[in-house]
TrEMBL record:
PANTHER family: SULFOQUINOVOSYL TRANSFERASE SQD2. This is Glycosyltransferase family 4 protein. GO terms for molecular function: glycosyltransferase activity. InterPro entries: Glyco_trans_4-like_N, Glycosyltransferase_grp1. GO terms for biological process: carbohydrate derivative biosynthetic process. Residues 14-172 form the Glycosyltransferase subfamily 4-like N-terminal domain. Keywords: Glycosyltransferase, Transferase.
Amino acid sequence: MRIGIVSPYSFDVPGGVQNHIMDLAEALIDLGHEVSVLAPADDDAELPDYVVPAGRAVPLPYNGSVARITFGPLSTARVRRWLARGKFDVLHVHEPISPSLSFLAVLSARGPVVATFHTAMTRSRFLSAAQPFVQPVVEKITARIAVSELARKVHVEHLGGGAVEIPNGVAVAKFASAAPLPGWPGEGGALGFLGRFTEPRKGFPLLRTAYVTLARQRPGLRLLVAGPGDRDELFEEIPPELHDRVEFLGLVSEADKARMLRSVDVYVAPNTGGESFGMILTEAMAAGAAIAASDLDAFRRVLDGGRAGALFPNGDAVALTTLLGELLDDSPRRAELASCARTVVATFDWPSVANRVLEVYATAIEATDGRVFDDEWVDHGKGT
C-alpha cells in the first residue's frame, strides 16, 4: 500500500505528535508498506529518508504550548506537488483542523483521507470560532482516529461524528533493551523528568519542589532532566548545594531518551493538564521505570487506573513529595508497578497499533471505492 502521512508540526523540535508519526511510519514500512511523510522543515534539514520537507516552520501558540507549523500559498503548492507525485492509496493527516500542512492536505486531497486527532482541549475557542472554516475539511475526511477517549470526546463535541480510538504506540523492545547511562541510577535513588521544564502544563515546578525537599533528607538522591531549555534557567530555582546532584541532558535523541528512562528508579510525570494520552508514560513503562504521575484522566487510563503507575492529586506538590518518598523506600512496590506496566504496555507496542491503523485505512479505501489521488493539480498547471 502507498501511504502518505502529513505532520502538522515541525520535526525540528521533538514532540509527541511528531514521535507518533515517525514511529507509525517506521512500523508501516517494517510491515512492507511504502510510506512518505510530509512535514514542516527546511530543505537542508537532516530527516529520515521517508520524510519530505515542506518549508521552514514558524512558532504558533496552540493547546497551551507553542507549535512550529508552516502554512500559506507556498506550503499549499508543496502539498499539491507531493500528493500528485505520491499517488497514495490513502492519505493520513494528523490534527487536520489546526492551521497547518494537514489542513491544506485535506483541502487538496482527491481520495480516501484518514485523520488522527490528538488534542485534549475540552473547551477550545479556536475550534468554536473556526467552525465555518473547518467544516469543508471535516466533510472531506473519510475515517477518523482519536488517540484517547478524551481526544475522541473533544472531537465529537466540536466536530460531531465518531472516531475510532487507537492509542499512541511505543517501540517496546527499543526501550526495554536500552543501557542505562553510566553511573545511573546509583545507590541513593534517582528521579527522572523529560519535557519542556519551562512549560507550565508540564508541571516541573511541582517535581522541583518535591525533589528539593527529599534531597535535603536523602544525601544520595539525584534528579535526571532531559528536554529543551536553558541549563542556567533550570538551576535558578534549585539551591546551589544540590546542583551537583541534578543532571541536565538537554535535548536528547530517541536512543538517548531510552537510555535516560532506563537510568531512573522513578519517572515523574507531574503534568497539570492538556494531555490527551501521555506517550512519555508508555515509553517509561517500556523502559521498566516505576512511574509517579498526576491523576489526569488521560494518565489514569494509560496507567490502568493506577496499577501500572502510582498517581497523586494534580497540582499537589506535598502529595507528590510524600508519594516519591514512599516509592524510593519501597523497592518491592516499584518492582510491582514495573511488572504491571510491562503487561499493560504490550498492548501499545507499535506492530499491534499499526495493524489497527491499517484496518482503518482499509475501511477508508473501501468507502471511496479504492480511488487513489490523481494528478489533477499537475494536469492543470497548478502547484508546479
